[in-house]
Amino acid sequence: MNELEQLRIRISDFAMQRDWNQFHSPKNLSMALIVEASELVEHFQWMSEKDSFSLPKDKLEEVGEELADILVYLVRIADQLDIDLSNATRKKIKSNEAKYPADMVRGSSKKYTEY
Amino acid sequence: MNELEQLRIRISDFAMQRDWNQFHSPKNLSMALIVEASELVEHFQWMSEKDSFSLPKDKLEEVGEELADILVYLVRIADQLDIDLSNATRKKIKSNEAKYPADMVRGSSKKYTEY
Amino acid sequence: MNELEQLRIRISDFAMQRDWNQFHSPKNLSMALIVEASELVEHFQWMSEKDSFSLPKDKLEEVGEELADILVYLVRIADQLDIDLSNATRKKIKSNEAKYPADMVRGSSKKYTEY
Amino acid sequence: MNELEQLRIRISDFAMQRDWNQFHSPKNLSMALIVEASELVEHFQWMSEKDSFSLPKDKLEEVGEELADILVYLVRIADQLDIDLSNATRKKIKSNEAKYPADMVRGSSKKYTEY
Fold first, then answer.
1. What is the DSSP string of C1-20?
2. Which band of pLDDT confidence, cut at 50, 70 and 90, is reported for residue C59?
């Protein structure tokens, strides 16, 4: 069984055992997810880009926890909507590879629509 | 090889071939991630919780793409910081299971600090 | 002198006296602003829409502080970019009034592009 | 009449004429606000801090519109909750002035809790 599927089951069990499905509407979960995303942003808000590469060990630990929180809500919301997160992601990467041909966009951060 | 590790390699190659690592500081990636998270939120902002469970097919497709975008940036930022996303997530879930004992929190959305 | 202009001056003095302008790039301030916005979202994430209208007094106080934090960063970022926030807002409202004619959009939450 | 109060009335009329109060729960408005905040963040995500100070004219115009959108939702949510945004902001600034004494925090971006 693939990894995201294992996570899906474990997180679903977690919610069910706590009777939390009633709170886990996709709408609410999208809010919870962005709250976790902003806890990630908070770590970096006053930091230079350069410093953001080399976090002190305790900060790095905290950032790892924020990333985990985001993944948990991501897997949960996909589950509540019956979206296959693995498939959706592989499909999106393929589409990104087509939209941003390496030879055209090399070294540029412009949005693909500007090409 | 596990799935998140496969994604990590593929997304890393994608960035390298486009010479985009220069833009992919953890600081910048945290911004990109929250922008994608808010595109998810946008789908649900005027929708009832109930309706958010049963999206029309085209909306569902779009939401799947937003979820994929979030996962891509999540994997990328973990990679840039040398964080093992699988481990971090399993550790966090374990810690959540301890913080929110099923018997104490059943049916309540209060934060664990309030217990 | 108008109110937003008074706020602008007071907040600018506050930053200058603390030598904080060095951190207040528009990029960083946009991050700080969204972090405050998400603290607002956090108050409502597990709450029904109905309950979100009638907050208990201590929650209401906290929400008021989040709104204030957002306004402070909003005024600051406009200041750092020499944007006249009053003018920009009046202009935007006028444009919204034209984009969403009352007779066409009454009772609908569709985006104006769908009309 | 002060400026934020004028905005409050105008925006309230705007919503009422379109029968949009039904969508404007504080919960939904917090989502709409963070979506606008992230459109602001999007402008800066791949930009250096330095470049974020000197935007080209068309970008500056767009950023002004995002700031306006944020202010509109901020005023709206305060209105729906009967929060006096002017008072809340003046109170918060006063509290910030006390929490971050200029002599102690000069030139440092640490959070006040670390002092």
1. --HHHHHHHHHHHHHHHTT-
2. very high
Long-range contacts of D6-9 (CB under 8 A, 24+ apart): D7/C89, D7/C93, D7/D71, D7/D72, D7/D75, D8/D75, D8/D78, D8/D79, D8/D85
d(Cα A10, Cα A30) in Å, to the nearest integer? 20
CB-based contact A64 B83, cutoff 8 Å: yes
Tell me whether residues C67 and D77 touch, CB distance under 8 A. yes
CB pairs under 8 A between A and B: 185
**Both structure tokens of C88:** 């920009």
ipTM, 2 decimals?
Answer: 0.94
Express each pLDDT in D29-63 by its tens digit.
999 999 999 999 999 999 999 999 999 999 999 99
pLDDT of residue B106: 86
Spans of chain B, pLDDT less than 50: none
Q: What is the DSSP letter of C82?
A: T
User: Which residues in chain C are closer than 8 Å to A32, comparing Cβ atoms?
Assistant: 45-46
D114 touches chain A (CB under 8 A): no
Contact residues on chain D for C31, CB-CB shorter than 8 A: 41
Range D96-115 burial, b when 16+ CB lie within 10 A, else e: beeebeeeebeeeeeeeeee
Cα separation of A55 and A52, whole Å?
Answer: 6
| Averaged pLDDT in 10-residue chunks for chain A of 115 residues | 93 94 96 98 97 97 98 98 97 94 84 60
Cβ of D41 within 8 Å of Cβ of B31? The answer is yes
Measured between CB atoms, does B88 come within 8 Å of chain C? Answer: no
Residue pointed to by tokens 């005027």? B46
Q: Helix D26-44 and helix D57-80: axis angle, to 10°?
A: 160
- Mark which residues 53-82 of B lie under 8 Å from C by CB: none
CB contact, 8 Å: D52 with chain B?
A: no
Q: What is the DSSP letter of B53?
A: G
pTM: 0.95
